Amino acid sequence: MVTNVTNFGRSGLADWLMQRVTAVIMLAYTVFLLGFLLTNGDLDFVTWKTLFQGTTMRIFSLLALLSIAAHAWIGMWTVATDYIKCAKLRVIYHLVVVIALFAYVVWGVQVLWGA
Questions:
Q1: Which phi and psi angles does 46 have, rounded to 5°?
Q2: Which H or E run contains 30?
Q3: Residues 4-18: what's their mean pLDDT?
Q4: Cα 114 to Cα 59, 60, 79, 82, 106, distances in angstroms
């Protein structure tokens, strides 16, 4: 069993479950957006802005954003532990992934909740 502080759920089962839960959240978000796009044929900026001004949509979008980050981290961690055998390279890789995911989450929060 791998007991590394860089994994997300501290066990393979927890990581597997987190992957599935985040995938369902991302699927629900995608289905909702596709449904919205298909039912609003004459979509304009005002309609789009009105959709994302609602607190419910902002929370749903934030949940989807955090799900993407968690899903990506688990997947990238798994790939790194399986294929990058050199510990130093794996640490550098993990650091780059963490910085990128952190930047994307901060940027997404700023877009969702900014002015």
A1: -65, -45
A2: helix 12-39
A3: 73
A4: 13, 16, 34, 39, 11
The 10s digit of each residue's pLDDT in 34-86 is 999 999 888 899 999 999 999 999 999 999 999 999 999 999 999 999 999 99
Q: Which residues of 54-76 are buried (b: 16+ CB within 10 A; e: fewer)?
A: eeebeebbeebbebbbbbebbeb
Determine the longest span between alpha carbons in the chain, in angstroms.
54
Tokens of 87: 């510990």
What tokens were used for 57? 């949509």
Model pTM greater than 0.90?
A: no
Which domains are seen in the chain, by residue range? Answer: 12-114 (1.20.1300.10)
26: its two tokens:
């991302």
